[in-house]
Amino acid sequence: MTRAMAALPPRLRSAAGSLRRRLLLRTRAQRWARRAREEWLGARPLYEAALDLRYGGWCGGRMENPFAAQGAVQVQSTHYDTLARVFRAAGLRVDPGDVLVDVGCGKGRVINAWLHRGWRNPMVGLELVEPVATWTARRLRRWPNVRVAAGDAVDNVPPDGTVFYLYNPFGEERTAAFAKRVAAIARRPERVRVIYLNPRHLRAFLATGRWAARLVDSGARGEPAALLTLLPAPPRDTSAPATV
């Protein structure tokens, strides 16, 4: 309660409080109505559904992850316009020799977006939930450059991967394991870049000492992004005397 309201007589204070609550409810209703117009009833869902269907099936909706207790997050798809803004804002250049990896690919909308941009690079989707991975692999089977692997992303990181996309796919512990794994097995570390949207566990990357990060404007409400690049491995200590 504000000082001004506290100074009012009880009857006026009650009326002012009631008016304030009605205004808050109206503002909240207006916010939800605007979101419905923009995201649910407007051009975006129609465009996304049409593009999804062009690549073999609808990729929208959300699904609870059966591995939530192990830190895996729910299965959902990133909006196409958000993906375009993030890649553009990051200034990330994809060359013909790059291998693109979607970590926690879900239904595969990110791979749709890459194909729609005309990229024909090798593309790998990593998905923990096997039925989802199977559906996505079947949907994208027409594209010979696309492979979807079911199982733990850390175990399935392709050593030749150079461009990785993550939308907060798992908790801090698995994020740290993923960051260490990529740094340890990358065949072309100088080419490795990670787009991390909604980077809740960015410190897990930075704590390894092998990654540099730059924040990127994603254009999505409350969801920044980060561009991570792999730093050179520290030189090995050769000063210790050899043991016989």
Summarize the structure in words.
The chain has 244 residues and is of the alpha/beta class. 39% of the residues lie in helices and 19% in strands. It has eight helices and nine strands. It has a seven-stranded mixed sheet. β4, α6 and β5 form a beta-alpha-beta unit. The chain starts with a helix and ends in a 14-residue tail after the last strand. The relative contact order is 0.11. The model has no long low-confidence stretch (mean pLDDT 84).
Task: Provide the descriptors you would attach to this structure in a database record.
single chain, seven-stranded mixed sheet, 8 helices
Q: List how many beta strands DSSP finds.
A: 9
Low-pLDDT ranges: none
Strand content: 15-25%
> Mind describing the biggest β-sheet?
7 strands, mixed
Helix-strand pattern? HHHEEHEHEHEEHEHEE
Distance between the termini: 77 Å
Overall pLDDT metric: 84
Note the overall shape.
globular
Please identify the oligomeric state.
single chain
- Structural class based on helices, strands and sheet pairing: alpha/beta
Compute the CA-based radius of gyration. Answer: 23 Å
Summarize the amount of helix as a percent range. 25-40%
Number of helices: 8
Question: Reading side by side through the largest sheet, how are the strands ordered?
Answer: 5-4-3-6-7-9-8
